[in-house]
């Protein structure tokens, strides 16, 4: 088990609160389930246990089927669990998250455009940006998974 390093929320409360407001606002026009699927998937990729726990719990509170959530890391193969728009959003989110090692391709962008407005694609990209920031903070400072899942807000 890793030892917690720093409590960034205590040491930089204004910055942490600003990021909280940004992540609450990012994607506010998107479907809540879709936003949480993206948050969970990016957190899985980035290895942020704190965020994985929080977004999994949020999806459960929304009534998501645990079997579907458990299949999220294999969404490309688990086609029965994810709609075409969800699959397009997850594809876009993974492509954006891969920066700078890989840039989203024209094909990634066109797939997103088949299912989302330009505004929704921008909102989705903001969601990826904010969850990446949380993932980076929590993984860097070894934020521990709480006894009960953290609830945003």
UniProtKB/TrEMBL annotation:
Any Pfam family the entry gives: CMD
Listed name of the protein: Carboxymuconolactone decarboxylase family protein
Domain Carboxymuconolactone decarboxylase-like positions: 22-95
PANTHER family: 4-CARBOXYMUCONOLACTONE DECARBOXYLASE FAMILY PROTEIN (AFU_ORTHOLOGUE AFUA_6G11590) (PTHR34846), CYTOPLASMIC PROTEIN (PTHR34846:SF10)
Gene3D superfamilies (alphabetical): AhpD-like
């Amino acid at each position: 088990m890793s030892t917690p390093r720093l409590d960034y929320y205590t040491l930089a409360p204004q910055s942490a609160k600003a990021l909280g407001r940004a992540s609450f606002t990012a994607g506010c026009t998107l479907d809540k389930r879709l936003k949480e699927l993206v948050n969970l998937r990016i957190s899985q990729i980035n290895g942020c246990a704190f965020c994985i726990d929080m977004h999994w719990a949020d999806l459960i509170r929304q009534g998501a089927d645990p079997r579907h959530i458990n299949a999220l890391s294999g969404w490309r193969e688990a086609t029965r669990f994810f709609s075409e728009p969800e699959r397009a959003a997850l594809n876009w989110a993974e492509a954006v998250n891969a920066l700078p090692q890989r840039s989203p391709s024209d094909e990634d962008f066109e797939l997103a455009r088949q299912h989302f407005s330009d505004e929704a694609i921008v909102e989705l990209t903001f969601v990826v940006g904010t969850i990446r920031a949380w993932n980076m903070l929590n993984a860097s400072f070894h934020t521990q998974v709480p006894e009960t899942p953290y609830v945003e807000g």
